[in-house]
Amino acid sequence: MSDVADQRFAPPQAQVADLAPEGAVLAERGTRFLAAVVDGLIGAGVVWVAFQIPALERLVQAQTAATLKSMWSPTPLSLAVGLLAFLVIQGWPLVTRGQTLGKILFKLRIVRSDGSKPGAWRLLGLRYGVGMLAGVNPIVAGVYGLVDSLLIFRESRKCLHDTIADTQVIKL
Q1: Which of 111, 149, 107 is nearest to 131 (CA)?
Q2: Which of 12, 18, 32, 33 could make an SS bond with 156 (beta carbons 3.0 to 4.6 A apart)?
Q3: In angstroms, what CA-CA distances link 5 with 11, 14, 37?
């Protein structure tokens, strides 16, 4: 057999780097955490206000009366209201700027690994949607959340959702 024939079965030779785009400065872990806390507080506040609307409050009480005691318990209605609130509040700045309100406050931006602007599907579907989908099951949500959080301690500072969506968070 010749050398050429053997190369057909050789593994691909790709250089995969787990680093920030050239010229970009990765966001600090603590700053990313604070931005996420701000985003969570904004989202929780909006959902709380939404559930103060009498019609929604009655729907939640009817859904939760048999088994659940709180508006924070996952029900189809609370998941739908939470998703809608997220899209209304964070969707536009995410798609247009690559930033949530917390990231705007802390001067952070989400970019692709090559430094380019991520598209709407990558941001809303892959980066956030996969985690929201995992949140439907409490066990999967716990494992996903733990792995997602711990992966930020890699040199690239990429969480699991960053790896899934091929994104990074940089300082402006």
Answers
A1: 149
A2: 18
A3: 13, 20, 56
Per DSSP, 110 falls in state: E
Taking the CB of residue 103, how many other CB atoms lie within 10 A of it? 25
Secondary element (H or E) of residue 109: strand 108-112
> How far, in Å, CA of 138 to CA of 18, rounded?
30
Over residues 59-116, the pLDDT tens digits come to: 666 665 555 555 455 667 767 777 888 888 999 999 999 999 999 999 999 999 888 9
The structure's pTM equals: 0.76
Q: Which amino acid is at 41?
A: L
Instruction: Tell me the C-alpha to C-alpha distance, in Å, between residue 92 and each of 57, 96, 100.
Output: 27, 6, 9
SS3 98: coil
